[in-house]
Amino acid sequence: MKSDSLLTYVTSSGVRKGLVFQLLEEPRSLTELREHLGISSSNIIPRIKELENKNLVVKDKGKYSLALIGVILAKKVQMVDNLTVLLERNGQFLNEHDLTWTPENLLWRIDELTDCNLVKNVIEDTTATYNVVFGNLIKSKSIVGISPIFNSNYPGFFLSMARQNIPVSIILTDMIFKKVEKDHPDALQAYLECDNAKLYVINDARLALVVTDTFLALSLPHKNGQLDTQTCLVSFEKSALKWGMELFEYYKQRSKEINSR
Question: Cα–Cα distance between 156 and 18 in angstroms, integer?
């Protein structure tokens, strides 16, 4: 059976799909599968036998688990499900923005942002994005970020976080760094003198990113290249945080670290 046929085979049955998702988490007994899926053994047993016959599931010591190809297939099914949810929620937003500033390997894994919510500034709340980001930042235990924009509150805020022994790593574009260096030299120097504070400068970046131990906030550029400062995607899911950290590392590797003078 071809891989695409196997994919269709698993997804065409709610029970089969439920079984592979349960077994992707950990090996389970028939009783555990029945309890988690909320269906009878008579409904599970034929489906589990089918999956065994397709070499997707194996049984050992009374527990069922996914074979290697079963794990691969289950993750592909999960990816499709997550991508469907993401596009249903935020497909229009993604289509209206420039994603070329996202490296290709992460773009192919954009389904990991499935639980992102779109926060947007509106007439009734013109500071919605700011409030969400900074409302969560003040509760964070670690912070990384990319900023191609400037706000007069930023230097003092990140300095205060660093002084609380919170690990902070920020990437600024060259233009924003020069502005901070000119207008906030004391805050900049004090920040650089904190052992837990890191600062990097990159020639250009059109997206804005914040990732902490608990949340991610991502702003993307419009098709014309200008950063959309009125909307951002926000998530508190581990998969999104991991995705965001990898995006930060991608830009950090292309940046120059600034050291205390």
Answer: 50
Question: Do the beta carbons of residue 220 and residue 113 sit within 8 Å?
Answer: no
**Is the Cβ–Cβ distance between 163 and 194 less than 8 Å?**
yes
Q: Which CATH number fits domain 3-75: 1.10.1200.10, 1.25.40.390, 1.10.10.10, 1.10.760.10?
A: 1.10.10.10
144, two tokens:
């990384």
CA gap 92, 36 in Å, rounded:
35
Q: Among 158, 145, 165, 108, which residue's Cα sits nearest to residue 255?
A: 145
pLDDT tens string 145-186: 999 999 888 999 999 999 999 999 999 999 999 999 999 999
- CA 168 to CA 156: how far, in whole Å? 13
- Please tell me whether residue 32 adopts helix, strand or coil conformation: helix
pLDDT digits (tens, 9 = 90+) for 51-67: 999 999 999 999 999 99
Place of tokens 């950290």: 245
Q: Quick one: DSSP state of residue 97?
A: B
CA distance 129 to 227: 14
- pTM value is 0.84
